[in-house]
Amino acid sequence: MSIRFHSASGQRNNRYLLMRHGHSQANAEHLIISTPARGLAGYGLSAAGQVQLDELLANWRWPFPTRILHSDFLRTTETARRVADHFGLGLQPEPRLRERDFGSFEGLPDSRYPEVWAHDARSPEHCEYGVESVASVAARMQGVIASLEQTLRDETILLVSHGDPLQIMLTALEGRLLSEHRAREPLLPASITMLD
């Protein structure tokens, strides 16, 4: 799946491809896996996720990346490694690209997500259930791009992250209210969004 995203923020020094990890074991088991304690070493790509990446790489239609930064969770690391191997690139772990911490919902069924999102729609600052606020996610995700813009030029950078953080960042870059991040069409596993 390919999406072109036109940001309201103007010219950048680099091109960015935002990628959600491929279908994971957590997706297959319908579990919320959002903390380093579970996500760094477990719940990598599922068999379906491996197939998604095979197809994506066989039909690559975006600019070739020159750098790859990724969340250090296993599912994003495995996704990034497949792309890096394909293009002969190294990997750079970036903890700011990690999954949003869903607090007390960690390890529970993913049917609990809407409870958090309902609070998000009322306040991007909320930390109900011990979750990381939308505002905090937006700040750290945008901070990744800000850091890269200060140090690099004319690169095509692939950022491999997770669904909620990427949707929150896209909402912020578009200049929309952070409380509206779930109004965006959900990003599918192994999808790529190109920032223009």
TrEMBL record:
This is Histidine phosphatase family protein. The lineage of its organism: Bacteria, Pseudomonadati, Pseudomonadota, Gammaproteobacteria, Oceanospirillales. It comes from Billgrantia tianxiuensis. Gene3D superfamilies: Phosphoglycerate mutase-like. It holds the Pfam family His_Phos_1. InterPro entries: His_Pase_superF_clade-1 (IPR013078), His_PPase_superfam (IPR029033). It comes from the Bacteria. CDD domains: HP_PGM_like.
